[in-house]
Predict the 3D structure of the following.
Amino acid sequence: MTRLSGKTALVTGASRGIGRSTALALAKAGAQVLVHYGSSATDADEVVRQIRAGGGRADAVGADLAVADAPHKLAVQVRKIIGDRLDILVANAGVTASVTIEDATVEEFDRLFAVNVRAPFFLVQQLLPILGTGSSIVLLSSLAAHASVGTLSAYAATKGAVDTLVKHFATALGERGIRVNAVAPGVVATDMSSFAKTDAGRDFTLSLQALKRIAQPDDIGDVIAFLASDAARWITGDTIRVDGGSKL
């Protein structure tokens, strides 16, 4: 993989799961990483400690992305730390809800779209002044945007919106030399997919996949790091499925 020495990166939702693995992968490749957290400051500090222990550069930044002005406040924090150049933005932070159509509430629906769609949109907007030629934006989509999986209709709608944003962002920002892509994981062994830790959940997950194991966060983080690097310099406007061959 092309080295990322001298590059700066922001990873949202980086205190655990896919975000944590992404932050570590980017740092290992040489990037200075801003580790964003929503509520888990202690976990974010541990990621920062791990990166620094390996000789890397990292800082924690906090913001509750469910709040309307959080992207604006987060952008201010980012600029205070790294200045006027951001090379990599990974909008990983997200929330999910498994609920039937009958039982869904307006509050749950609005929170899903606030965190999963509104926050990435306005974070890109607020950071555009420091994103330039060669920068890479990676958003998080999902298998649920491309296939019916359980009672995830509202969550899936947010990820369908992400796929749409990728195409529009890539078109609008291509003239500036900024690439925009998404990754679409399947079931990954994170807190968001705790059902996969049960025997029934594991069996169901494996029945969906060509590759017969449960994905780990590193499986996704490494692909995100690739998309952020110059090795992916001719990829933009795409959503890359990273799902072990799910629902082929």
